[in-house]
């Protein structure tokens, strides 16, 4: 049965936005990039074999994010080059104190993630922050689950080390 | 199954940090906005194709029209227009001729008429043309024959509209070119015979033209310079009859009274 674009969009829009976040697309650019992703999906949906939809979409997101970073070279021409920007909106229902703490935490975590290895980082964000399971991440990335656990193991160690260094510097 | 850092060991700094970071929440407003943009871009994609085609077509047509216009302009730049007269192109007079009234000014030493009240209406154009015609066919005669139908030069009021209307109205450029060429031959090339022929042709074609007085005045001068005092006197008589207080009246008086031997 052929896939309907509207159904794909409805089911996967939130996931696409989270994946974009894991690839370091800032909150301000995320909607535009999501639109680009779904334009590609709309164009190529007829050729999709229907085997691994999440993996297919994840591949499109990765390529779109990579293209976006390459295109934005001009913006980074006269300032310090930043390849990875991770941010997320704080919980709007939280009180002022919690909101302030969340903003600080988002800034610090974003800085630590920016210093991590790229391959491990995506798995780390998807598992630790976005709440995907190891099996889901393996399906997205088209790798065995054991590879995901290995990446997560090293990513955790790296994050904890960076976090401890950051605490020690304070 | 591996526990998440934020769920398991909450005592480490990393776990405390991650526990404060919320999961990326996607609002339904954002979802609806991107969907609307997708729908718009789908329609705009088809429309933009049509617009692009139209823009390319307009650009092509514009370029073609511009090129055609330029080419036709180049085609109209004949040597005679570039260099004044065709056989005098070697003199390098590339600039377009100035207006007739700037060039065809009266000679400087001639005084202006002292009594403006003495100005009388000019003689009939036909008589001026008849007088100005060179008396003999010379080697300097121009190849273009005079008009075969004299009636076209001075149409009578009762003539039919078809006969009265000239087939091609005289252009100001052609009129000026004849007089300017004549003046150039007279003053610069010192070829009074050719100058006389050109002035006579102008007067034959446009006996009441705006440069008729100048052409007749220069005809007198050319005859005098050619060493034909009788012809110069005849032209002076005709000039004074047509323009008793004209700009060349003083020259005409001198030529009529004391013709050169």
Report on this model:
- The complex is a heterodimer of chains A (about 170) and B (about 260).
- Chain A contains seven helices and no strands.
- Chain A has helices at about 5-20, 25-45, 55-70, 95-115, 120-130, 135-140, 145-170.
- Chain B is mainly α.
- Helix content of chain B is about 55%, strand content about 0%.
- Chain B has helices at about 15-20, 30-75, 80, 100-105, 125-130, 160-165, 170-190, 190-205, 210-225, 230-240, 250-255.
- The model of chain B is unreliable at about 85-125, about 135-140 and about 145-165 (pLDDT under 50).
- At the A-B interface, helix 1, helix 2, helix 4, helix 5 and helix 7 of A face helix 1 and helix 2 of B.
Q: Give unreliable regions of chain B as ranges.
A: 84-123, 136-141, 143-167
Give the structural class of chain B: mainly alpha
**Terminal residue distance of chain A:** 58 Å
Helix content of chain B: 55-70%
The N- and C-terminal alpha carbons of chain B lie at a distance of 135 Å
Number of helices of chain B: 11
The helicity of chain A comes to 55-70%
Shape by Cα distribution of chain A: globular
Major pleated sheet of chain A: none
In round numbers, the mean pLDDT of chain A is 86
Kindly state the number of beta strands of chain B. Answer: 0
Rg calc of chain A: 17 Å
Principal-axis shape of chain B equals rod-shaped
Number of strands of chain A: 0
Number of helices of chain A: 7
Name the helix and strand elements of chain A from N-terminus to C-terminus, one letter apiece: HHHHHHH
Q: Profile the largest sheet of chain B.
A: none
User: What would the average pLDDT of chain B be, to the nearest integer?
Assistant: 69
Strand residues, percent of chain B: under 5%
Biggest interface and residues each: A-B, 39 and 25 residues
